[in-house]
Amino acid sequence: MIYFDNAATTFPKPSAVIREMTKCMREWGGNPGRSGHPLALSAAEAIYSVRVELAEFFDMEKAENIVFTQNCTHALNLVIAGIARYGDHFLISNLEHNSVLRTVDNLCRVRGMTYDMFDALQSDDALLCEIDGKIRPRTRAVIATHASNICPRRLPIREIGALCRARDLLYVVDAAQSAGIYDISMKRDGISALCAPGHKGLYGPQGSGFAAFADDFDFERFFGSIYGGNGRNSAERDMGHEAPDSFEAGTVATPCIVGLGAGVRFVKSLTRARIEESEHMLYRHAKRILNDIQGAYLYMPEAENGSLLLLGFHDIAPSLVSERLGALGVCTRAGMHCAPTAHEALGTGGDALRISFSAMNTLDEVTRFMHVLGSVI
Amino acid sequence: MERRILTMTSQTLAIKAKRVLFRYGISVKIVRPSPRLTPRGCAFGLEMEMYQISRAIDILEENRIPFGEILGI
């Protein structure tokens, strides 16, 4: 088996992740935030420790500003719906996943807001210029991906963050493809809210994700979108505006969260920089070999700003290639990757084959993969 | 020794406060005070020796960790 679908979820997971989750479910996993008995408190302590790990990893002071969610989409919905007000205007990029595109588009229709899109495939300077030019008096936030989920394009988050701070806008970053791989600092990059999955570059289990809010984020103007029990002020109807508890209604996924904590420690032990370097090495190796494969071509062949490969084929549909590869034990992803405007911008016609790496992949796997690819097209 | 409970606005902040206080040499226990004592409903609190309350409050204020009220046991 060769697994090159790590942009969907990293696989396999580190053993420590599985161990922590099993230990939680066997030994101490009570319901945190509810009871005062030892198992409930152990779970709460463990969850708080993961908040601390994440806050440290993303350069934040307040661990309580990490709000756990089921996944990145959930985090983006929580953040976008939480900041959106009637009449607001948003700016998003044309590389957005549907987790941003659909969320913003639907909220705009329901809540009477508007949005514009900027071209994220142009140069960084041109992109910043376009964002600046599209800011209106009612613009509330720039909501954009950090790294595309289909092509090697990373947005200049530090510069966008600086622009947002200068123009008094919120900056929401979708870090679905970058958390754990690329350098992110909430403080330095001026990020208001960072949304990330636990199960991709942070090597946690599916079912884990979070929204990280800046240390100075104003929660008084933020509204949660899921209501219910959170173990505090139960006699009141209002859940309050205090992170994280006001925004984590219902039982949180304790085993998944502690698994995420183990994943973050795995990344820290390898170091994020080495993972980035390793994935890029695989990317460059794959690009070199691809040149020799007849019938296949690469989108953005010159790009060096990411490590995802997006392939098209002259005589066969990418979806069919992916299916054939799957039958031979090679896992890739074809189709539209839930990013319709990104596919449109790249001119794929809505179908392309994505290859994505993780720290678990090797150069030998890339070489073997290219041989198999050559045999199915 | 008489003990007191300092109520906290959430379990997360109770844990944060417990860890901060521990660094200053104050050992506390996280408890669930009776809802009869906390009119807003379920809450969390830090149980500690009565003589430590004043210093604990100073430390929490210094670290900008919000807290509620002092309850007797």
Layout of helices and strands, plus pairs?
The complex is a heterodimer of chains A (377) and B (73).
Chain A: E1 2-3, H1 15-28, H2 38-57, E2 66-69, H3 72-83, E3 89-93, H4 98-111, E4 114-118, H5 124-134, E5 139-145, H6 157-166, E6 170-174, E7 193-197, E8 209-213, H7 254-270, H8 272-290, E9 296-298, E10 309-313, H9 318-327, E11 330-331, E12 333-335, H10 340-346, E13 352-355, H11 363-376
Parallel strand pairs in A: 1-11, 3-4, 3-5, 5-6, 6-7
Antiparallel strand pairs in A: 2-8, 7-8, 9-10, 10-13, 12-13
Helix pairs in contact in A: 1-7, 2-7, 3-4, 7-8, 8-11
Chain B: E1 3-8, H1 11-23, E2 29-31, E3 44-49, H2 53-62, E4 70-72
Descriptive notes:
The complex is a heterodimer of chains A (377) and B (73). Chain A has 377 residues and is an alpha/beta fold. Chain A folds into 2 domains: 15-269, Type I PLP-dependent aspartate aminotransferase-like (Major domain) (Aspartate Aminotransferase, domain 2); 271-376, Aspartate Aminotransferase, domain 1. Chain A has helices spanning 15-28, 38-57, 72-83, 98-111, 124-134, 157-166, 254-270, 272-290, 318-327, 340-346, 363-376, and strands at residues 2-3, 66-69, 89-93, 114-118, 139-145, 170-174, 193-197, 209-213, 296-298, 309-313, 330-331, 333-335, 352-355. Chain A starts with a strand and ends with a helix. The model of chain A has no long low-confidence stretch (mean pLDDT 96). Chain B has 73 residues and is of the alpha+beta class. Chain B has a 4-stranded antiparallel beta sheet. Chain B has a single domain (3-72), classed as 2-Layer Sandwich (Alpha-Beta Plaits).
